Fold:
Amino acid sequence: MVIVASVLAVVWHGVRDALLMAWQVWWALVLGFAISAVVQAWVPRERVERALSGSGPRPVASATGLGAASSSCSYAAVAIGKSLFEKGASAASALAFQFASTNLVWELGLVLWVLIGWQFTVAEYLGGLVMIALMTASLRLFVSRRLEAEARRHAQQADTGHRHHSAGARLSGRERLLSVRAWSDVAHNFRADWRMLWKEITLGFLLAGFAAQLGHGLLESLFLRNAPAPLPALENVVIGPVIAVLSFVCSVGNVPLAAVLWSGGISFAGVLAFLFADLIVLPILAIYRKYYGGAFALRITALMFVTMAVAALLVAGLFSALGAVPAGPRPTRTDVFGAVHADYKLALNLLASAIFAALFMLTVRRGATDPVCGMRVDRASAVRRQVGARTVYFCSEHCRRAYDGRLG
Structure:
């Protein structure tokens, strides 16, 4: 009975801490996803594809800006990057989009700021830009032009991803603000992002909550702390990504665990390397292989790992030289997980919940479910097919063709 009671106590405290951390950042998550959904719904996709086609610094810069304004979902970033690559974007532009989409987005910076401080937000954004620059400069050391061409042919043969058809992208700014249809496009993108990410976010909070129950002793044993410089930083920027890869958590979902690692003793550089590594978690590595073939997937994975580690060291070194690395005692578990109080966070969370409910209700009122992929789509702008007296709605021509195949 004593053992059962101890296990139940650990489970309760882990879940409780996960919920407390979610309470800390709920408003930031909703606000970030809402801003991302507006951009996705109201920026014409054709304009994006034209801006990113070809090679050189201009398409890479355009890809960086687009990624920073898009969804933070790592899986969505990889799928969109593949779509851009097969339509003519260079490997550098596609990878720049992925780096920006997972490191320069609103919601990630907001959640980092709330949980562990502004220094991590600034370092994350700066590190994203450094990674893109390093990746662009060193791409040919890892990927030849011949291999890139082979990967493009492989990507063109892979299955097409799903996409929303947004009417709001064709409206003027004033029309978008006043159009229910345009806001419905926003709502459906908002819902799609949550559908893709809720498992990663939930898992991230749960991992953070239960990792905190292990105590700092176990966490500290993973990191070199007293060895001569620069050995601790070098070890941390390797172990950080390894933890990220094995945790399977990506995008915003890895921020809670990053907070626990920082509390447990990992270096500033190690936290950054851990955060940067959400594009090389094991499920995404399998996606790279499916999209591009084994050789290209292996080489871009090596490229990303090197750029992540080097960028973390460079940014941490700059912050150290400027005296901007957080000093003083590490945050305690109470500091990381917080508590529920009648304060500004309560007001922000209530407002965020109202926005969340309003956007989801809009998808319920105007939406339909794609029978192939399960995506929720706006009936007014979806691809459709008449089956007898019934209209069936799809997110893309790809799903419509798959449905036709089922009908024979």
